[in-house]
Amino acid sequence: MEDFFLDIVYKNKTVRFRVVNPEAPLSTLMTNLTHAIGEDGKLIFDFPSIDATGAPLDYFFGREDPDVHEIRVLRPRIGRTDQTLLDYGVQSGDKVFLMPDPFPG
User: Fold this and answer.
1) DSSP letter string over 81-99?
2) HSE-up of 58 (CA within 13 Å, CB side)?
């Protein structure tokens, strides 16, 4: 299997990220990303766990809908089914966005 890369955008920073298993659930990929360490030994992305109002944050992948030019959230689960990048048609080299989502406390 050839390498699978995503260009991940968060806070005006784009990082090319190698995905070991594009068939893994999105929730697993997000967990791996929040713990990913760069060559400098620091976290690649700084994910605040709370927003400015103190609400806890969750993070989702998003993708631009080319027809309406809006970012659509890639939900990690639909019903009881874990979703993967492939379920959303995400391909190697695609650009995805990290989207913070406050959830009610």
Assistant:
1) EEPBTGGGT--TT-EEEEE
2) 12
Overall pTM surpassing 0.85 (yes/no):
no
Gap between the Cα atoms of 30 and 98, Å rounded: 9
Q: How far apart are CA 100 and CA 60, in angstroms?
A: 7
Radius of gyration of the CA atoms of the chain, in A: 14
pLDDT in tens, 37-62: 888 888 887 777 787 888 888 889 99
**90: its two tokens:** 């995400």
| Element holding 26 (H helix, E strand) | helix 26-34
Instruction: List the helix and strand counts (H, then E) for the chain.
Output: 1, 7
Helix (H, G, I), strand (E, B) or coil at 40: coil
Q: For residue 97, report the phi and psi dihedrals to the nearest 5 degrees.
A: -115, 145
Task: Single out the residue of 20, 2, 5, 28 nearest to residue 91, CA to CA.
Answer: 5
